[in-house]
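Example 235.
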Amino acid sequence: MRLKDVLIRFVYPRRCVLCSELIGIESDKYLCSDCEKATEYISGNVCEKCGMPIDYPGMCRHCRNTKRHFDEAFAVYRYEDRIREAIHRFKYRGKGGYAKFFGTEMAHFADLEEVPYVDYVVPVPISDERRRRRGYNQCELLADVYCRERRQVCINALVRIKKTKPQNELKRKERIKNVKNAFALSNDTVDLKDSSVLIIDDIFTTGSTADECAKVLKRAGAAEVYVLCLSISVK
Ligand SMILES: [Zn+2]
Ligand SMILES: [Zn+2]
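Predicted structure in complex with zinc ion:
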């Protein structure tokens, strides 16, 4: 490490993304050793459609009963405990810098689980108003890091056209209604005909956000639409 970097680390010591514990000056890691040990990717048996951990083969209850527009979804972490708290800081407490850690982990996970390489990676958009207030779209930050790591092309193909409430404040049925027809193609996007696309989202709860995005992309001609979520809420 160069002296300059050591000094920067000294003045701004690196803290664990998950528990805020100080990490050694010389470390390049994002997590303390405790959190590193306690944090695992989702693996083992998952729903073959949405990536939800299940203890039986095939599809989860929701996917069996709901038509999904996306072809397959993958999720890196369970939305619980320290991951959940860190995602909350990432979204609502100005910790956009966490994207570097989370986006890199999404790319590692994608390598392990063979998430398909696609023509375009598309982040779930947020409204202009929310972006102004927050200063960034967390999914866009994740998609940027992911694309750099996996050498994929990121495009902002979608826009949010309907004012929606935050999904986490709603019940299942309301969530589906809340995001229904909330997205559209952005005006200057590329021709998606016969393309493959990967949607990047932060939290998969009912899957309705990812699904509405997939619907728009499929209607625009995309042949395959996959979803990669940083986390999935497991019930
Ligand atoms: Zn920690
Ligand atoms: Zn499922």
